Queue: 3 jobs
Job 1
Amino acid sequence: MSFSLLGLSPAFLKLLEAEGYAKPTPIQNQVIPVVIANKDVLGIAKTGSGKTASYVLPILHRLEQTAVSTYREPTVLVLVPTRELADQVQQVFQTFIPALTGQPTCLAVYGGVSINTQMQAIGKADIVVATPGRLLDLLEKNAVRLSSIATLVLDEADKMLNLGFKEEVDRILALLPPRRQNLLFSATLSDDLSQFQQLILNAPQVIKIAAETNDIELIHQLAYLVSEEKKGPLLRYLIKHGDLKQVLVFASSTLKADAITHKLLKNRIHAAAVHSKLGQQTRCFTLQQFKAGQLRVLVTTDLLARGIDIEFLPCVINYELPRSPKDYLHRIGRTGRAESTGDAISLVSPEEMDHFKVIQKKMGIRVKILSGDQIDVQGY
Ligand code: ADP
Ligand code: MG
């Protein structure tokens, strides 16, 4: 299949070529025509398989087809779990908006930054990409109405419908027109429709791209069994000895992320942290720096486990395991994206071993475990 056969206009094809998108990924192949046909979608495909463009392209295509009313209100709403993901999705819309003659506007709104500029801009935006909390704040201030929303996207949908977000998302859903298109995406969504049917989706097309058995494993997973106090030296050994050019390190808490970063810097390894206790400017700046390849090690929490796209990231290290088995898949999915390969290494203490077994069992994977304590990390 090619993008032109999916019904996208020549202007899109030019931009797709410039972006290096030679042909649609499997999820794009299947989702794009269904979204163009104005149907609901439950889209399930692995991390890094191009789910974002699978909804961004047909949504923009449809905006071009539908006349813009003179009374402008947002018609597309995308809900995402983190500020960083809101920015990233907004940028994908921005990349393809030039293909349209109407030039709709796309705005990302999220907390941690001034609400005033968002208040002025949101009412006039055609497409809003939002984290739920800030959108509710803006609604409370009457800065925007959602009565013209024709398409709703829940990216990382399982997370958005999970306990942490459910109440906020429900409040937003209640403000949307009942007749609308609903698009749900994640790598870890259940295809059991009964969960979503009454709630959100209306006669959806379920599109699930299963990993093919002859798929080459793009993410090479490995674990080291290592005592807690040896994790730090082993991390630095892996980075220095393995000559790792870029690494994303996951810790279980903001305090731990800071401590790991501090130790790396002390050992002259260029590192910085991104987590929820840092200011939004720092978070943005550091992630941009890392995405641009100007920072060797980024230490973070599950804040960056989902959705974040770092081109050609060669390695993810779990300094500690995530609590949720799903988040293990999302974390390691920051590498091995768009058909490039990557390593995912977990440092597992004896106390964490039972939990690691649970993760493997629940996610249907088997990870090779090496002994970390046998590696000579003296001097690291
Ligand atoms: P997902 O949401 O499925 O985890 P993303 O939408 O973030 O994945 O896409 C992962 C990467 O693949 C991005 O860098 C994106 O630019 C790239 N990409 C998406 N579609 C294509 C395509 N058709 N050809 C080449 N690269 C693509
Ligand atoms: Mg995504």
Note: The two ends are 51 Å apart (CA to CA).
Job 2
Amino acid sequence: MTQVLFVTAECAPFIKAGGLGDVAASLPGAIRNCNVRVLMPYYSCLHDDRADFRFFAAFYVDFEGGHRRVRIYHGELDGVSYYLLQAPDYFTCNTPYEGDCGVETRRFAFFACALMAVMPALGYQPDIIHLNDWHTGPIAAMIYYRRMHDSFFAKMRTVFTIHNLRYQGVCDRNYMQYCTRLPDEVFNSGGMAWYDWTANPMRCGLYYADRITTVSERYAEEIQQPEFGEGLDSLLRDRREVVSGIINGLDYKVFSPETDRYLNVHYSAETVREGKAYYKERLQQEFNLPVDKGAFLAASISRLTDQKGIDLIAQTAERLISRGAQIVITGDGDGDHTRIVDDLGRRFPGRIAAYPVFNESFSRTLYAAADALLMPSRFEPCGLSQLIAMRYGSVPVVRRTGGLRDTVLPYGENTGLGFVFDDYTPDAFDQAFAEAERLYHQDRRAWDALVQRDMHADFSWDASARRYEALYNALVAEAAQAQTGGL
Ligand code: GLC
């Protein structure tokens, strides 16, 4: 059976900053026909109470001119094996991403070097190293060079998945080379080369990986165009033969209103009206919104960043609530966007509730309470909130981009899953919102049927997991062929 090592900077429920954490938590378990193990740093801020992590082995890594000791811990959760690398000098932190590129460069370069040392130390020889986002980019180059002259690595192949092309980890070139000790050519003309004497680890991953995937088919096309390519579109066009889009799935064991561990009252497609009425009232009371079960309640649940269209919500807010809607906005993010959200709450009390922190439990309650979920993203590689929302019977109102376009088919009589708009403008967004609101108030039957379609839509991992398996196995066959000289 094909052996896959899934390498990630975050993984729920141990540590999660965004969608990557959810994908890392659910994709490995959905792969049935290959053996997948997950490897990640053992951050000091990681929640390790859900799996019983036990010391497994210790080894040394050459880094920053000395031998650094690394301890590896092993644990299992829901049938998936996790390996955590512990090295206090590098992984002591309050969050995996400090927002300081020097710290992050050092942390993830160390992680890469440790990964390269741990495999021979354990005699563990995966066929596929599945890398995720820029944090793991240097590893693609390390495998590429190492396998040329080290038979232990000769058959290993890399898959690099882009969860978000915007974050590239760009940093000082000399420092990156000092940390990774990759050859000069990698920095001068190869994968790390970037403007103004910087290094770009995302580009490095895309340059050296054997296959590139991203998390929806539409985003796979979009990133090959300058508008969405974040400066890497020409490289992605050059490599288009190895680029593909595989839509993310949802783990319905975790995200389902029938079993959600954060909900005290559960509901199903049959009882959705009562379930939602209960949570709506609770939320309205909690946030001083007028208690009115007929009010159209829209939610925004996302990281508060430029990507997610928070500015569009702000520009449109007055119009959205002018017809009686209530809006609740939650999620954490950067200072500017947190201020925008806070400000909305202050300007429109009793209409807009702002709760700009990320709280898993609250967000689940909000999915349950809301009639609609707003996702006017500028770009969206896949998007998970719209998938969760549909399962909880909240109708998505989304911009037609990336994974939102692939998952939210526009509403039509007896078809479609949500309300969709194209232009990134207040008018276009307001129109889609108004269309949703109108259906909710004026044709409750059609609205309820739409909610039923959303709740029954299948966005589980099954089909996508089979596609990853096919990709892994194709690469293994290719590697075997290369070994026998293509005979
Ligand atoms: C990132 C993207 C999001 C995607 C997630 C998981 O957070 O912004 O669209 O769903 O990664 O792949």
Note: The chain has 18 helices and 17 strands.
Job 3
Amino acid sequence: MSMVDIINKKRLGNVLTKDELREAFLGYDRGEIPDYQMSSLLMAICIQGMTDEEIYHLTDIFIHSGDVLDLSHVSGISVDKHSTGGVGDKTTLIIASIAASLGVIVPKMSGRGLGHTGGTIDKLESIPGFCVDLTEEEFIHQLNSIGAAVISQTKNLAPLDKKIYALRDVTGTVESIPLIATSIMSKKIASGADNILIDIKVGSGALLKNQEDALEISRIMKMIGKYYQKDVETMITDMSVPLGTSIGNSLEILEVIKILRNEENNYLVTLSKELASKMVQLAFKKEKIVADQMVEDSLKSGKAYQKFLEIIAAQGGDLSKIYVSPYTQEVSSTKSGCITGIDAYRFGKLSVELGAGRKTKEDTIDPGVGIVLHKQVGDYVQVGDTLCTLYLKENSNPISEDITSYFTFS
Ligand code: URA
């Protein structure tokens, strides 16, 4: 069947066979199908959805576009965690440090920013020298020596997802349950962990906007996990306000450091502790109360922070050279009252506009731009108080939009 026939078949809501999916996706992988035809098929999938069977097939195609990592040479129990995507979501770097400091092996294959949501790899690349492209041998060596490594998709691990992911990012084809499920699960299966924890984010700043979609993707991910004999746990968590105080790559790394040094306490910290505890429970079959205490001790004692520094150093990062833009713009409140909401979606879009994400596949990210929120939901503000600071690209014009409208007040 030609690519046009495959696109039309999906556009009309029909089910694609494994052979048709292979023809389209492997053809794209080989460079025989152009971006515009693949974008069109992805859009048809976004609109028409996929059956469970199509989702299995597509996941399998992504997984077998590369190798599946064999972690049998890594001693210890591994738990991988992945988020479905949010604004200011820097939990991976916090919880990988906590869990690894407690003896959990964390083999983490992460992605770049997607749509209005940020990506762990872009955040890590804002640390000068940090290498996200380890070979399989280097990855396994680091897991054995320090217990955690965070890498990008290499040429060998789910490489087709990497190509499709970059295309989805700039073609309005991100927000699709089947595409998110296949993308995440193919990476997780390919990176070889024994246990997988998925943080399913719901709310304006997430790719999934409501509880029903979150429950549906949870069902699909567990179903895929079962097929590949992996233990998949999901947690559905709120993403209606940005997570933590910063959005943007370098700024988020600096916030991770603050949290690991016990200098910040907010919902992001609570959520990170819950996720890390879940990883410990999965790895060591501990009671929740015991795992919670282990996580608390790791943070308080500074062990998690030490582990973070080890991971950064092992992958060549130099935190002393991190760049934050000196070109700033303050946003002051024009109202007084209690903040009842901060629109995560609009802040995510603004961060892309500032240069922290991509609008085309060719765009390069500016690591030093972003937003720091000075007020959180529940804070009382007076007219003139600074709500947030924008970090702008050199030589860019100030933002003329009314950013105060991203906040709601009672
Ligand atoms: N994270 C991924 O890796 N893929 C998606 O599609 C969404 C979030």
Note: Residues 79-320 form a domain with the Pyrimidine Nucleoside Phosphorylase; Chain A, domain 2 fold (CATH 3.40.1030.10).
